[in-house]
Amino acid sequence: MTIVASGTTASADTPAGKGVGPLLRAWRERRRVSQLELASRADSSARHISFVETGRSRPSEEMVLRLAEHLDVPVRERNSLLLAAGYAPRYPETPLDDPALGALREGLERLIRCYEPYPALVVDARYDVVAANQGITMLLDGVPESLLQPPLNAMRLTLHPDGMAPRIRNLGEWRGHLLAQMERQIALHRSEALRKLYEEVAAYPVPEAADDGDEPAGSVPYFALPMRIEHAGRVLSFVSSISTFNTPMDVTVSELAIETFLPADPATAKYLHTLGR
Fold this sequence. Notes:
Elements: H1 20-30, H2 35-41, H3 46-54, H4 61-70, H5 75-84, H6 102-114, E1 120-123, E2 129-132, H7 134-139, H8 154-159, H9 171-189, H10 192-202, E3 227-231, E4 234-243, H11 251-254, E5 257-263, H12 266-276
């Protein structure tokens, strides 16, 4: 289990040659916030917001960051806003294998290792896997080597017809959940790389045999949508949870997410602990 440094995810969508005003207006409209509402949140005036958006007024560095905060602009895009306004980027983008992030890497590895025998992994903004524990390795049994070449991508591994998809018993539901998750990320980050990945995995054919939709007799009530996947002749059920870092000050760290899979029924938990022993 090793942290793998992923490539940078430069924003391919930032309109070239645009000033900060049009960019801020685009983010405001994307968030469906009026100039008056944004002014109220940022302790400004609708008139000043209008002047900034039309280029009649140059916002201060503090104002750019304040507006970006209230518009929930991703850290990477905040740097783009600052550059467009004529200021230096505020947030560094430190490679994950840089010694400065050594403590972070060690902490992530320890976290997902301690989660065993349950599956856990760490992905970047493009869903490339940067770390995974033995529980994830167990779920990848039977996946061909062609899909296991780095960089591993969680969405490809899950939805590719040669990947985990044929073994996911409720593939229709789980696929819909993953695609909706990607759509929300695209709306938040404006990432062309993520959009291309979405178009790729959404076009994968769905193995009909995998999606039976049948619940086992006497099944327990689920508290969240489970992923029901075959492994070694039995069906395991998992619900997933995604965690990110609070108030990240680095672009790389801001785009990391930890996904953990919790057994959704007692039989799955018992089986995993048996494997762990």
